Amino acid sequence: MTIPDSIRKLVKRFDEQSPAYLLGSYNETQVRIDFIDPFFKALGWDIHNNNDYAEAYRDVIHEDMVLVGTAKKAPDYSFRVGGMRKFFVEAKRPSVSISGDPKPAFQLRRYGWSAKLPISILTDFEEFAVYDCTHKPEENHSAAKARLYYYKYTDYEDKWDEIYALFSKEAILKGSFDKFADAKKKGTTTVDEAFLSEIEGWRQSLASNILQGNQMTQRDLNLAVQLIIDRVIFLRICEDRGIELYERLLKTVKQKGIYQRLTNLFKDADDKYNSGLFHFNPKEKNATDPDLLTLKLKIDDAPLREIVESLYPPNPYEFSVIPADILGQIYERFLGKVIRVDGKKAIIEEKPEVKKAGGVYYTPSYIVEHIVKETVDSLLEGKTPKQVEKLKILDPACGSGSFLIVAYQHLLDWHLNYFVANGGIAKFKKELRHTEKGALRLTTQVRKAILLNNIFGVDIDAQAVEVTKLSLLLKVLEGETGEAIGKNLSLFHERALPDLGNNIKCGNSLIGSEFHDQGDLPLLTEEDVYRINAFDWQEEYAAIFKKGKFDVVLGNPPYGATLYPLEKKFLQTHYKEQSYQLDSYLLFMELSIKKLLHKDGLWGMIIPNPWISNIRQDKLRRLVMGHTAVKQIVHFRYSVFRRVVVDTEIVVLQNGYRKNFKPQVHIVPSEPVGELLEHAELIEGNQDDWLKLADKPINVFLSDAERRLRNKIFKQPFTVDALFKVNVGVKPYQIGKGKPAQTKDIVENRTFDASKKISNEYRQYLRGRDIGRFEIKPLEQRFLRYGPWLAEPRPSANFDAITKILVRQTGDEIIAALDDQQFLCLNNLHVLAPHDGLKNLMGILALLNCKLMTWCLRVMNPEAGEALAEVKKEFVELLPIPNPTNLGHLEKIATSIIKLKTGPQSVVVERQIKMHIRQIDAAVYALFGLTSDEVELLERRLT
């Protein structure tokens, strides 16, 4: 593309007057106004918000400068799309050598790396350097390290296409910048990984040292270590944000007696912030219990000095720009481990539930944003601040607080936009203040009030609760200055932070105090009581329940959490809409709908999808479909949580059933680059239809036409389970199962397997991959010693039936074969043993292998194309079957196919088989009375 005239003029002016610009007296502010602002304006950016976008969505943030000595503590520009940071630009005066001086490059890379931005720019207009910020920066790196592009101002005309293709607003909106940036992320150490490693090291050294000099219970040790780390991080972040004097923490470690000096800082923070994080005075009324533990500890200097010094340069962390969600990701994984005391040894190990789940899975920020937008934002529309003040937003399993932080940010943005749009600072003097740059922001008092009025959370993990509080408190202080906080303290005796003890609480969301009223409850140990941690919602949030419960319940509840026998018995008694196989996320759904949610309240969470596809969840489906309006389901065709394969979806409900409601169902094919639903397929659901089918699995992704076709096809006189006994095959091995119970050695050595028939107890068995359509073709002969010593021998499968049909379990299509040799089958096959008197198995076999049956499977179970798709037993049982006496034509075709498959193979034979299969499909379409349009609709889902 042609370089704009405005850029040509800038280049010409700089060239003509460069001696004056290169003087040290020509400062950074001047170069920004004269050259850098118009440069990025030519790239399509609204540099000065001339479009009057709301503060939360303006293109460019000119960061408020915080001076620490002579150094700035925030990047000059943050370029954003839809409120999301894309890259930083750090400006320098032209007298600085960008190509040779390593300090500006290190400064920029620290900003970019700490903010987890893959790419950022360093420029003084004379030079323009693009840096890869995915590589951990080090102070001794040269200016050329991680530099991707370097231009002189004289290059702009020739290279304008290249610059525009990467850094124009158009390039961002089209996704080309994100594709380029994503390519830089692979194989690098990110800020969250590096800082997590750092604080895990602190935990180990602190815990070990505290144990040596103090008598501590395991619970107190975990709490003390967490509090000390949280306090140090909080104060260090405040330094980089200009709220605390820079290097104040560092000065405490320069002499002996470090912990005493640190506790003095903590006490000062108690006076200044009034946060439960720093609450030591038992005489002062506070919602959080005072800390009577940590101030008395004896801690050696060495570990404390190492911790504090690692938080200052030459470290790569720039705490002023680390986003709250990144801090949350770090802490979420940090909280996945716990300190176990073994004598005087501190052992760090994964929590049992984390080990079971295979790690900690942090909710991606685009998921959190979408759920908050669909719940919180929708309730804010058309309201006034007085009305918004009454909204109560809850995460009942808040973890490190990611959902509450984003909900709080959306509330802050809404209030700021409201006050600016409805009179500004002239009208709202108590609500708004000017920053040093002249921008408007909410006062600390308003930010505190919003947090206390609107944001609530519960978690069973005490450490997670403290992290949530920490993250929210840091959010209150964003953009504040030490001077403003000090002024409020001296003039109004008002401390900077609220105490969140009444908002964010530790407890078991699912179990109330009635747990302890059970008559047959055994004597509980102290550990049992702490683990169960019964929580009474109506008592803990009495004022909210008095006025009508919570307006929004949101989050990412635990999936498959460990439920101990004591708790499980209680939950099965008190949660009436569950199957016998309890799952924690389903318990949270029932709790929310029946107990927590206001009569018109909104519920938004990301959960696994078996609640709609598992036949056993019929009661929960009836609750949802019959008592709420399903506003939105966003289903993901990819794994949202990258290290674990679990099919998930966002579900947004509104309490209260609404007749004729049409939910929006979105199918997201791959991880989004921009807007979550930008490339999603949209289907209009029918909740009345879902309610009618709630006793069985529901496919919510069917169009109206497909629903009509489903109703027609399934209107048959029989189903598979009316004609066959359906069972899964043998499960040979599992430690502790079988008679006698299997040992680890038996399982690992597959003791009952053999490659030949050793005795009459040994029977040849088949696996899923040993069958195809109309054929059994074992890849190798395998035998199994069959009897009660197997983990699950399943004699009811009737392996000895003279003829039976086998259906492969893995995959998303029906693959069936006829067995007349009495094979055993493993549990990746379904065994269809016919009821007495059933004839024409060959005709039914042909029917099962046709396209229409696979379509029936897919309309019942929406797993087609997914990594772990299965042909589940319950779906096989529900397949519709016409009168078997009408299947004679299909029987003849199936017999021909089997004869062809067992004879000599050739291209001609393969063509004949394909022709016969097409004949079966056509015959079945006619048998079910399908029109040509219906056939086309059916086959479209199978492509």
From TrEMBL:
Enzyme Commission designation = 2.1.1.72
Q: Which taxonomic lineage is given here?
A: Bacteria, Pseudomonadati, Pseudomonadota, Alphaproteobacteria, Acetobacterales
Per the UniProt record, one Pfam family is HSDR_N
Example of a GO biological process term: methylation
What GO molecular function annotations does the UniProt record carry, in alphabetical order? methyltransferase activity
Domain named Type II methyltransferase M.TaqI-like: which ranges? 453-641
PROSITE patterns, per this entry? N6_MTASE
Has UniProt tagged this entry with the keyword DNA damage?
no
Domain Restriction endonuclease type I HsdR N-terminal per the UniProt entry, residue ranges: 26-138
Has UniProt tagged this entry with the keyword Endoplasmic reticulum? no
Q: Which InterPro entries match?
A: Cobalamin-bd_sf, DNA_methylase_N6_adenine_CS, MethylTrfase_TaqI-like_dom, N4_N6_ade-DNA_methylase, N6_DNA_MeTrfase_TaqI_C, Restrct_endonuc_type1_HsdR_N, SAM-dependent_MTases_sf, TaqI_C
Q: Which organism is it from?
A: Paeniroseomonas aquatica
Protein name per UniProt: site-specific DNA-methyltransferase (adenine-specific)
> Could you tell me what reaction this enzyme catalyses?
a 2'-deoxyadenosine in DNA + S-adenosyl-L-methionine = an N(6)-methyl-2'-deoxyadenosine in DNA + S-adenosyl-L-homocysteine + H(+)
| Protein keywords | DNA-binding, Methyltransferase, Restriction system, S-adenosyl-L-methionine, Transferase
Q: Which residues form the TaqI-like C-terminal specificity domain?
A: 764-881
Q: Which domain of life is it from?
A: Bacteria
